[in-house]
Structures are given as C-alpha cells and as structure tokens.
Amino acid sequence: MCHVSNILIRLVLVALCGAALLVACKAPETAPTPHPTDTPVPDNGSHVSSPDGRIQVTFVLEGGVPYYAVSHSGEDVIKPSKLGFIFKDAEPLNQNLTVVESKLDSLDETWTQPWGEVEEIRNHYNELRVSLEETTEAHRKMTVVFRVYDDGLGFRYELPEQDNLSDFQIMDEETEFVLAGNHQAWWVPAYRDNRYEYLHTQSPVSFLSEDLQAVHTPLTMETADGLFLSIHEANLTDYASMTLAGSDNNTLLCDLVPWSDGVKVKASTPHQTPWRTIQIAENAGDLITSYLILNLNEPNKLEDVSWVKPGKYVGIWWGMHIDKYTWSSGAKHGATTENAKRYIDFAAKYGFPGVLVEGWNLGWDGDWTKYGKRFDFTTPYEDFAIEELSAYAAAKGVALVGHHETGAAVVNYEQQLEDAFAFYRDLGINTVKTGYVGWGQGIKRRNEKGNLVGLEWHHGQYMVRHYRKVVETAARYQIMLDVHEPIKDTGIRRTYPNMMTREGARGQEYNAWDVEGGNPPEHTTILPFTRMLAGPFDFTPGIFDLFFEEYRPNNRVNTTLAKQLALYVVIYSPLHMAADLPENYEGHPAFQFIVDVPVDWQDTKVLHAEIGDCVTIARQDRNSEDWYIGSITDERERTLETPLTFLEAGKEYVAEIYADAADADWESNPSSIDIYEALVDSNTVLNLRLTPGGGQAIRIRPATGGEANRLPRISE
Fold first, then answer.
1. What is the mean pLDDT of the segment spanning 650-665?
2. Were 374 and a residue from 141, 200, 215, 363 both cysteine, which residue would form a disulfide, CB within 3.0 to 4.6 Å?
3. Domain 7-295 is found in CATH 1.10.3260.10
4. How open is the CA angle 436-442-445, to the nearest 5 degrees?
5. Cβ-proximal residues to 100 (8 Å cutoff; 6+ apart), any chain
6. Fold match between 7-295 and 522-533+562-574+589-716?
C-alpha cells in the first residue's frame, strides 16, 4: 500500500480541466418532479459536494497516481485513498495518469417505486466525471465517476472501448477506504463455508487487520464522534462482488471474490464496475431510510410491471425444519396433495395470496446437497398433483409459490431454466423461491462438454452472471423471485422489479437447528443497520409455537411472541411469510396482526435506532391511511418514548396494540402477550415497554364514530 504525505495540501493546488454545469435528462420510472438545487455544483473540477454542501469528495493525481478523499462537515471521513487496477498479462492501470477532462453534472428527480419501503424516492446528486489517460505509449483510458448525495456517495470506474485495452482480466481492484479513525464496526466474515449466514461481530476496524479478516458488505461503522458509515456497492452487474479486507492504519481494501483460477474479473471494453458506496448519517436510523443504493441503479427495464404484486404467503416449510415433515418422499413427505390443499384452504380463509410448497419435485431423496444435478424442475413426486392443486388454488383466489432448490448445481439448473419457468407460467404460478444450498468454494463450473473446469464461490463473477440470468429469464415469463443462498442485494430491484426479496443472512430457520443455540435476541436489532441496508430480506417471521417441543425439544425461538409480530414491520420484505404451522395460528388472537399487516408501504420512519440494542420503525400502508409500528429490543428490557407526530394532525386514530405482557420474558415466558385498543392522535406519546428479547407491534387506523366513546385514550 502506498502512503502519501501532504496530499491534502496539494488537493487545493491541483487544477483539473474546467467544466460547465449540465443538467442531466434521464427517463425515470415516472415523470420526475423537479426540485431546486440547494447548492450549486462548484466550478472547480477537482472536487464535488453534496447538494446540501456537507459532503465533499476530492480527486487528485499524486505523481500520476489517482486518489480520492471524502469529508463531512469539514471533517475527514475517508482520507486520501488509492484507486486503480492490476491486470493479468498487462501493466497495471494505477499510475502514469493525467487528467484529460473533468465534467460536473447534476440531477434532481423523483421516481416512483412499483413497490417498496416508500412510494416516491428523490434522486438528487452532484456528479464529477474525471477522464484519465496514461502518459505511457499505451495511452490507455479510464474514467472515474463520483455521485454525491446528501446521504453519501457512490463512485465507479468506466473503461471505454480502446485498442490497447480490449479483452482484459482484473487480478485486483486497488480501491482503498482509508478511514479517519479506528471505528466500531459490525461485520460478518467472507470466504467461509456458510456464505453470508453468520452472526455479526462488533469490533474496532483495526481487528480486521490484526485477525486477517475479509468481511462482507454492507459493513456498518460508528465513529468516535457519533457519525455512522456503511460501505457497500450498487448495481453489481457482470463483475465480482466486493468484500473488504483489513489493512494497516484503519484502511479497508477492496477484495474481489475470485474465479477458481484466481482471476477476479473477466471482461472486455467498454465496461464499468459497480458503484462503491459510502452511506453517511448523523444517526443510525438515517442509514435505514437512505435510498442511495437504489438511486445508483438503472431505472426499470421491464416497462409494464402490473404483474409484480407484493404479498404474504404461508407454506410447507417450517414443518420440514422442525422435522414434522421431510422434503424427501416417504411417510413424512410434506409436499403431498392432501397437505397442500390444507394450506391452500388456510390461505384462502385468511386472505393470503400465496402457498409455498417445497419438496414437490423429483431430486430430494438422498443427499441432495451433494447431488443437486438430480433435481428435475418439471416432474412432481407421485403424491403431489401439481396441475390439480394449481387449479384448486386458483378457484379459491390463491396461487402456489413455486420452488427451485438447485443444491448449487448451477449447470443442471440452467439447462432446465426455460422449461422450468414455462412450466410454472402455464400453471398460473407467478412467484418462485430459488435456493443454492452449497458450501464454500464448491459450485461446480463445467464446460460445454460437461467436464468440470472449476469450483466457484457463490459471490464471484460466474455466479453474479448466473443470478442475473435467472432474474432476466423469470421476467420474460412474468415471474417474481425470492432467492435464497443469493448474491447480495445491490439495488437491482429498481431495474428488475420482479427481483422481490432474498435471504443472504441468518434467518428464522436457525432457531430450529442445533447451531449456536439459534439466533440470539440481539440478532434482529443488528440486521436493520447491516444486511437490511442492502435490500429486502426473506427472514420468515411469525413463529407462535416458540418451543415446538413435540418435534425438536432442544431448540427454540429466542424472542417473545410480540417480537415475532413486530418483525413484520422492522424487517422489510415485499413477500412476507407467515412461517408457522396453520394449527398454531388458528384461534390465536395475535394472528390478526399478521392477517392485517401489509407488505407495501407509502412511507417509512425510524423512531428509535441503537445498533444491537433496539429499533422502532413506523410504516404507512400504501393502500390505506393505516400506520404500523414495530419495536424490538435485545436481551435487555427497555421502555421507549414514542411520539406519534407523523399522524395527521386533528384526526383521531385507534391503536391496536400487541405488547409484551408484564410477565413476558423471552427465556421463561415468551408467549405472554397483551392485546388491546386505545385512542391516539398526533399529540400522543406512546411508552413502548419491551421485555427482555421482546417487542411491540401496533396497527394505527382512523377511528370510527362510535369508538371515541368506548375506548380509553392514551394522553400525551
């Protein structure tokens, strides 16, 4: 690593080419709503500021070597950090550079999400494009683009078409993040067998260097001054995913997940990298309501997406994890015609549009994690009449949710991909859950003759290409996707709105397994500030039988019942599962919250935010005047004062409250819950009492005329 002194002094001395201010005209998802620019773009091409002027990015060449730096309110966030590439069989593109041109630009538009955490998103940035060229005989060219928002920035490399850089192989992307301090970080390790599915560790950033750790993104940090940062990437397309490797002096290095032959990226010009993103917030909650990642993706390419519909579902899934059923055929086979009809009837009764059935197709017998090539995606087991069930579901206003577990046998899946999606489309199945259970660097890559040529990671360029191929293929058949064992979300749901939700972290199933005692109470108080910054998460909440002693007496869910309800609001997903067995819901008054809670939102507000301690989120239903609140805590009891100032002033509402009872405790009495109603308005301050491992879920709806006389009022 190169350490350069006096760069900050030289930043102001470097004169880049002047640039005119241009206003970009792009076609957003809907007609943009103009906004005035808060701060003009500076006319000095060496730096660019956020619209509010608080974040500044500076670019400089030091002896022909490119660097960038970032400050917030005049304080360093990223100290001068190197940029560039190392190629295979070619000279590096990281030195001997000169600035050919620099341009400043600005965009301010508002676009509408077809579904999401909020309906409208403002896309407001100032941009600096720096075109570089080598001073050597090769004269290779590279452009670095910075887009700076009020909530952070993104930057990427663009390699234009050129004679001396056509086909290339990247051995290293030399992007650095030289942090201004030894911040506290929340992270999960990279290059491990279990993909992204690890509990978060909290440590100083320096620990990553001392312990030789590479970590996945989003990597969230808190500075000593109380500033919150998260490093991730946006629009990961035909490139290796980025992990971060610790280095000396509080430095993080871009560490691309390699192919089996050691090459990181194989491409040809013109080509562009994903955006390297840094979200910056003065409180942790503002990270959650930052939409920088989405804004750095391309607008919707699918045009008409009226067939993309968020919704809730039930399914034959939890029963397998607790050993009531099996995926494989036999006496305990879960995916039978009789069992599926029971779930369909349940879904129809309570208004759930989807029923997920796993284990219906040939290939589950034996160790399918080793022999995924046996999966047949169009042939059901004899005890599962899929055509009959599809018609039965449709007659009740319900649809089956399809399932493609690949066992990480990617070649087998791709060979059947068109037939598999056509099969589902013809049956009226418009949502498919996919799975890629496999371990470490174990995905078999084969050539056209079927010979093994390499073993790949889930997160390298080979699999990035595969996951995108599946998204695009599904879109052609008007099928929505829920991807498990995925590539991390980098905001492509803006471009392909059928890419609904995904896994990519430890979900509910870990509570049914003999793995570290399940997910501890703090797990879900960390996820909104880390994994959830990337995008929607199919966590599968809603377990009511928290001990399931009949099937797995040594396992349990480490929350209260009220917290299971609150997770439907705290953890965002446009497809949410009511994960427990139907018999555990029938007749239970708390089930009403799951029936009521939407999955598509008009607005989202974070009311409390302490990473690893507690989080409270309020969301407004996109299709009504209702608001929903979810509040959760770690293993500590706490009471949170929660003003309802987001409600319309002068209007009365009914709060339907699902709270931990006074004697509730996640360890000893998790099912104890109080359910009651009260009148509230915009002046109300709720005192949310959360027991250890607990939570609170609230529906707030406009009051009817008679309710004002019979319900108690919660005063200020």
1. 97
2. 363
3. no
4. 85
5. 17, 131, 132, 133, 141
6. no
Residue type, 542: G
Q: Which fold has domain 522-533+562-574+589-716?
A: TIM Barrel (3.20.20)
* 623 burial via Cβ count (<10 Å: 0-12, 13-18, 19+): exposed
**Residue 221 near residue 205 (C-beta atoms within 8 A):** yes
- 558 Cα distance to chain centroid: 23
Question: What are the DSSP calls for 281-326, one per residue?
Answer: ESSHHHHHT--HHHHTSPPPSSS--TT---EEEEEETHHHHTTSSB
Rounded-to-integer distance, Cα 455 and Cα 686, Å: 54
Report residue 326 as tokens: 């099996």
Residues 94, 66: contact at Cβ < 8 Å?
Answer: yes
Sequence spans of domains, the chain? 7-295, 311-504, 522-533+562-574+589-716
Q: How far apart are the first and last CA of the chain?
A: 57
Is the Cβ–Cβ distance between 375 and 413 less than 8 Å? Answer: yes
Q: Identify whether the C-beta of residue 201 lies closer than 8 Å to the C-beta of residue 188.
A: yes
* The residue to which tokens 């538009």 are assigned: 109
Two structure tokens written together for 692: 């250890």
Q: What is the pLDDT of residues 245-286, one digit of tens each?
A: 999 999 999 999 999 999 999 999 999 999 999 999 999 999
DSSP readout, 656-704? EEEEE-TT-BTTTBTT-EEEEEEEE-TT-EEEEEE-TT-EEEEEEEEPP
**Which architecture characterizes domain 311-504 according to CATH?**
Alpha-Beta Barrel (3.20)
List, in order, residues 6 or more apart from 214 with CB less than 8 Å away.
Answer: 189, 190, 191, 208, 243, 244, 245, 246, 255
From 174, 509, 522, 656, active-site residue = 509
Q: Which two tokens stand for residue 28?
A: 């957003």
Indicate whether 10 pLDDT > 60. no
Q: In what order do the strands lie in the sheet with 614-621?
A: 601-610, 614-621, 627-633, 695-702, 653-660, 673-680
Q: Look up residue 469 and give its amino acid.
A: K
Mean pLDDT of 114-130: 98
Q: Is 509 annotated in the active site?
A: yes
Give the CA distances from residue 344 to residues 48, 316, 351, 379, 389, in Å, rounded to whole numbers and listed in that order: 56, 10, 10, 21, 9
Among 564, 551, 440, smallest CA distance to 508 is for: 564
Residue 582 preceded by cis peptide, ω within 30: no
Both tokens of 579, joined, read: 């994960």
Span 330-342, average pLDDT: 98
The answer to whether 358 and 317 are in contact (CB under 8 A) is yes
Least confident range of 123-127, 210-214, 708-712: 210-214
Task: Give one word for 133, left, alpha or beta, with left for phi > 0 and alpha for psi -120 to 50.
Answer: beta
Closest to 129 (Cα-Cα) out of 59, 178, 64, 177: 59
